[in-house]
Design a protein that fits this description.
The protein is mainly alpha-helical. Helix content is 62%, strand content 0%. It has 2 domains: 32 residues, no CATH class; 101 residues, 434 Repressor (Amino-terminal Domain), CATH 1.10.260. This is XRE family transcriptional regulator.
Length: 140
């Protein structure tokens, strides 16, 4: 997938007379890999080990490896946990969530605002779960 700003793709989509016209024109810009491919790409880019990320994400080891191998589709919370385990920035986390088809973190929701705050302050998974628990929100 070649990167192109979303707003440019939206403009192109709005100007097309049919969906198939847009698909044909924008083929190179559409997501063409799985979430596990994307996660493994992030591992490579950041020179991280799966085992370390899974441990730092507080995921069950078997389940974590199944996510990275593509055998399991992670939930939004599991992806957020992985983003903490990978120490992704807020922008990288938002991109990961969008790539997987989930809503990005939304600051008007209490729980999401806590997650954003933790991201911006480089919290570990342990610290963010403690904050969520203290604020009577579901932990990751």
């Amino acid at each position: 997938m070649i990167k192109k700003p979303t707003n440019e793709l939206m403009d192109a989509l709005n100007q097309c007379s049919s969906a198939s016209e847009y698909i044909n024109k924008a083929q190179d810009y559409l997501i063409d890999s799985t979430i596990s491919d994307y996660l493994n790409q992030l591992l490579d880019e950041k020179a991280l080990k799966k085992s370390t990320v899974i441990k730092n994400s507080e995921l069950n080891e078997i389940y974590g490896y199944q996510i990275f191998s593509g055998k399991r589709m992670p939930s939004r919370d599991k992806l957020i946990s992985i983003s903490f385990g990978m120490n992704l920035s807020l922008d990288e986390t938002q991109a990961l969530l969008k790539y997987a088809g989930f809503a990005p973190l939304y600051p008007k929701q209490k729980r999401d605002s806590l997650l954003i705050w933790g991201k911006n302050h480089q919290f570990s998974i342990y610290q963010i779960n403690e904050l969520l628990y203290t604020e009577n929100e579901d932990t990751l």
